[in-house]
User: What shape does this take?
Amino acid sequence: MTFKAPRGTKDIFGEDIFLWRKVEDILRNVCEKFRVFEIRTPVFEQTELFQRGVGETTDIVTKEMYTLEKKGSESVTLKPEGTAGAARAFVENSMYADPQPTKLYYITPAFRYERPQAGRQRQFHQFGVEIFGSYDASCDAEAISIAYEVLNQIGIKNIELKINSLGGNECRKKYNKTLKEFIGSNIERLCDDCKERFEKNPLRVLDCKNENCKKVIDDAPSVIESLDEECLAHFEALKKNLDNMGIPYIVDSKIVRGLDYYTRTVFEFVSNEIGSQGTVCGGGRYDNLIGECGGPKTGAVGFAMGLERIMMLVKSQGLIETKGKDVDIYIGSIGDEGFLKAQAVGFELRKSGICVEYDTLKRSVKAQLKYANKINAKFSVVIGENEIKTDCVNLKNMTESKQEEIKLSSLKEELFKRLGSASEN
Ligand code: HAM
Assistant: This one.
């Protein structure tokens, strides 16, 4: 019997792990500069949290949730995104009582039952930031500036920031009416799903992926025209803040996002270098969600980046060297006594921070040294009975093919002298 990873999932290993860790280091470092603190929430939550938070009429809730077979009394679902869990945690842990804003970030797997393709998986990973406690447009700009700086620090090129405003509850009602009139007069050209969306939540028609529907949507009225004075001013303030930080953007009134919780600002960072799934980051303001989760009315804004899509760009744009840490020393051994010494010395060196490899396959000395070459060992020694008796080994510099006789008992000191700070990298 052989097994395969489930469809839409991937193993991450080898050199890719090196890339992922480098990117994660960048995310964490940038968050530190912006005083954004990590939060780790459960991988599953009460199903109702996503139904109410993400929205009953969204594709995520209607088609894509991994809801687990009931164990006990509550229905739970693997998180399809990170915002709802972070909002629930903000309320449950009374973070609103802390000095505001509360700035949180997460790096988490997320699960959506979607048709897998390049850049779209059923288990994927998100880096997300959520800022709670402010209604001001400067906070939207701060969230966007974090995403912008992350992409900049990774070195990603040719990415476009698109922004839009969906307005507050009243503007949304007004826009829904205008949109319904427009969709109503084109209803026959839409897919069956959209016909249903038209009844329940016309805004969702705007993110339909069906080609025919997309053609209809192209002529849909702009949401910006339905904004009231206050929401327009908020959007203008956001633009002013972005200009002030030198963050380029384009206004795209077709950006509506696929989740129901957004109010006012929505934004996406889009690349055209990774195929049809080019949105590497999406986010926006969601001022009603904390209230929906039973907390006090609280302004909130955030975003999430798809890390698989980021990795596609890191690789295609050749942004990070994949070479892992070289082995500092390979300790070869002859015979049982030689092996025991190699193991004891190796363990001591490893405890001192030196990267050591030795033979655990009982290979010949020749095969051991061939392996030492393959794994890019910087130095090598071979320990046998004789070396133990005389306390003397040949320390070979593998890159320069030079040998020096040194005392086995001072191998650590000799290595430190030669490795310098190299072993700390
Ligand atoms: P989202 O647009 O659904 O927003 O997802 C954010 C990002 O996750 C997408 O832009 C994409 O890069 C990545 N992503 C989504 N689905 C998949 C998939 N099936 N495979 C690979 N990558 C995927 C949210 O999730 C919101 N929670 C963002 C947010 C945070 N809004 C406010 N705060």
Confidence is low (pLDDT under 50) at residues 421-425. The radius of gyration is 28 Å. The longest helix spans residues 15-33.
